[in-house]
Amino acid sequence: MQKEIYFAGGCFWGVEHFFKGVDGVRSATPGYANGNIENPTYQQVYTDTTGFAETVKVCYNPDRISLQRLVRLYFTIIDPASLNKQGHDEGTRYRTGIFYSDASELPLLEAEMDRLRAACQEPVVVELEPLRNFYPAEEYHQNYLDKNPGGYCHLDIKAFAYLRMYQDFALIIEGETDQIARMAEAAALIQERLHFFWTGFYRVQGDQLVLGPFQGPSACLRIGYGKGVCGTAWKQARTIVVPDVEEFPGHIACSSLSRSEIVVPVLKDGQVTAVLDIDSTEVGTFDRLDAAFLELVTQLI
Ligand code: SME
After folding, report:
1. Which of 223, 227, 280 to mutate to test the pocket of ligand 1 (most atoms within 8 A of CB)?
2. Entry pTM
3. Which atom of ligand 1 is least distant from the CA of 198?
4. Are 262 and 198 in contact, with CB atoms under 8 Å apart?
């Protein structure tokens, strides 16, 4: 069985490359979708007058990957609040959108859009539309980043490392019911693949967070509710990115080497049961991409 979904996520070279690396995806084809002429050329689309969006047609095996997981992966690599601009690329051809060819998927897609809107601080501008037309792009755009290693890609290279780490993690922990084992595996994989300074979990125990599985130097054992970055992420039940720990009031310096951090809550039925805390020795290490991928990881915890 094969299904298809169309993602517009900025320059299609990087988006194609990303989805080619997704387990369960059979093919990812860059092309032009939902425009107003027939058989457009890249030069025509480039003028931004044809209505087309650079789009990747993703064919997948629904027994191996769900549409929900595909959509959530797509959301990790876009800025959903940026209108007609992704990375350095600007124009309506770089707008973001999910275009579906099967209307029965609309409820799921709408639910995922609602979820994204709830999580996003700014208005979401991602389109959700039926697919009106799609034309595969010229041959030289197909497999562009394979043909041109090191070629232009608007996606941060860490997206590809995160994708592999996330997929490996999902495979390894499949069927594992022990939460501490899953936490230990996540901490090890994140550390091994992304090379941060400290990666670990704190678990909610009463009114405190207690140190759980981690990788890295010795760390504080307990953190109070609302204290430090971890306690704040628990209290606010949301991901907190701290570009510079010196500018976060109440930051708890377990190590003076830590310069920036991200804390992602682990949620169960809307309640925070633990937090994933990652520290870096550089300022400004973490951004939307880290937050989006680490939220996917915590959903598997
Ligand atoms: N810096 C954290 C404390 C935990 S350590 O970074 C491992 C905070 O302020 O919550």
Report:
1. 223
2. 0.94
3. 7
4. no
